[in-house]
Amino acid sequence: MLKNWRLVTAPPVDYYLLPESLNARMEQEDNLKALPRDRCIFTSKEESSADSASNDMWLLCDSRSVPRIRSMIELFNLLCEDTLTERRNQGPSIGTVEAPPVNITATVAAVAEVTATPVLAEAFSPRQGFIGQLLGAADKNGLLIYELNIPNSPGRIYVYPEQQVFYSPSSLDLLAPFFAADQALISCTTRSQVTEAELEQLSEAEDLKPYTLRSLLWYGVYKSSQGRLLEGAAADKPVRLKRWPDLNLSDCQDLIKLAAFMQSNAVSLLVVAEKTGIPIKMIYDFYNACEIVGLIEQSSEADIHNKQLNPEKVSLFSKIRSRLNKAHTA
Question: How many domains is the chain partitioned into structurally?
Fold first, then answer.
């Protein structure tokens, strides 16, 4: 092959791998129209879809959504031919469609990246992506149903702003794909005037579990920040953690030491990195998430306790981390 093919987690990408359900909606929804259709590859378990008269590219999969070998060969031969044409023409062979202005990501399963890793904005803006949708839902009524239209989606998220809760069949840490995906792939429908009885019936029918909306916001910002400090925040101003967030998540257990230090000391994020040895990008992610849900207080002056953690406390943190690991692997 003439390209190094790989999945990517952010644009730019060459091709977008989408579920068959989106094929019929490509010309109906504005957010999907933004995608260059001749760069979209649709997955299907039915050969009749791939044999349609349209010029769409298809990847046939078996009943377990595993791509079929023959279909993969045909698809990559087609993409390889496209690459050769690009090189001969010194430009894109499939029209001159510019990349859409939306932030398409590869949880949607974009399958190729031929340029360097994209440069993210210097500061993190919570108004973008799924976090922006959740923050904007705070004053809405009814039950908001979010669905991520990708293969192997973690399930729907039912947000009930009036009670500051959400329901999901998946645990919080399995909802991470929502925060990596572009808004174009997240649909939202609203059910107005939902009664408690209807919520109970829905929960039983879909095996939904209730969580606080605050926990979803915290985890979403933590996963979305990608090492960027929250816009308007300063890394050189002293802050303190009011109380710990819920760190009983599979990918948050390394934050125990950070939470303990930031609750005991009022220092800048730069000093936190210096004193703890924790990467500054991880500190930014943690700080952003805590700030969004009101767990951070600004301090007028630094107040640091230089006393090192004694071996007993270090051992305690290790035991907590070990128990969390066992809880998630059980």
Answer: 3
Whether residue 216 sits in one domain with residue 162: yes
Q: Which ranges constitute the DSSP H helices of 150-195?
A: 176-180
Report if residue 113 sits inside a domain.
no
Are 130 and 179 within 8 A, CB to CB?
yes
- Give Cβ neighbours of residue 60 (< 8 Å, ≥ 6 apart): 43, 44, 45, 47, 50, 67, 68, 70, 71
Q: Which residues pair with 65 in a beta bridge?
A: none
pLDDT digits (tens, 9 = 90+) for 186-217: 999 999 888 889 989 999 999 999 999 999 99
Annotate 196-256 with DSSP letters as a single string.
HHHHHHHHHHHT-EEEEHHHHHHHHHHHHSTT-EETT--TTS-EEESS-----STT-GGGH
Query: In the structure encoding, which two tokens stand for residue 254, read together?
Result: 């390394």
Q: Is residue 29 part of a domain?
A: yes
Supply φ then ψ for residue 77, to 5 degrees.
Answer: -65, -40
Could you say which of 196, 220, 244 is where a domain stops? 220
Q: Is the sign of the CA dihedral 308, 267, 232, 186 positive or negative?
A: positive
In a domain, 302, yes or no: yes
pLDDT 10s digits, 40-99: 888 887 766 655 556 788 888 776 567 777 777 777 777 776 554 554 454 443 333 343
CB-based contacts of 199, cutoff 8 Å, min separation 6: 143, 160, 167
Q: Is the pTM of this model over 0.90?
A: no
Q: Does 258 share its domain with 316? A: yes
Residue 267 and residue 265: Cα distance in Å, rounded? 6
Residue 42, judged by CB atoms within 10 A of its CB (0-12, 13-18, 19+), counts as: buried
